[in-house]
Amino acid sequence: MRNVPKKMPETSCPGHFSCDRLQRAQTTGSSFASNVHGQLLNSLSTNIDNALEKLRQTEALDNEIQALLALQATIGDVSPK
Predict the structure, then answer these.
(1) 13: buried, middle or exposed (CB in 10 Å: 19+, 13-18, 0-12)?
(2) For 18-41, what is each residue's pLDDT tens digit?
(3) What is the DSSP string of 34-65?
(4) What single-letter DSSP state applies at residue 4?
């Protein structure tokens, strides 16, 4: 009679092909998910950085427009009549 453990380990049963294969698949799946998650975070971070830069450029242009409008108001209408 073989000595069989009453409860098998949850992650792997050494020597059982299907259990070893399942464990490899879980490890591979976990690694893949981790890589995809990291790529998504990097992409999101890049998109946020790009959006912030565009916002800064827009604010800078708005500030320049406001300065020109203030200058125009100070000088008055100088267009030829």
Answers:
(1) middle
(2) 777 888 888 888 898 889 999 999
(3) HHHHHHHHHHHHHHHHHHHHHHHHHHHHHHHH
(4) -
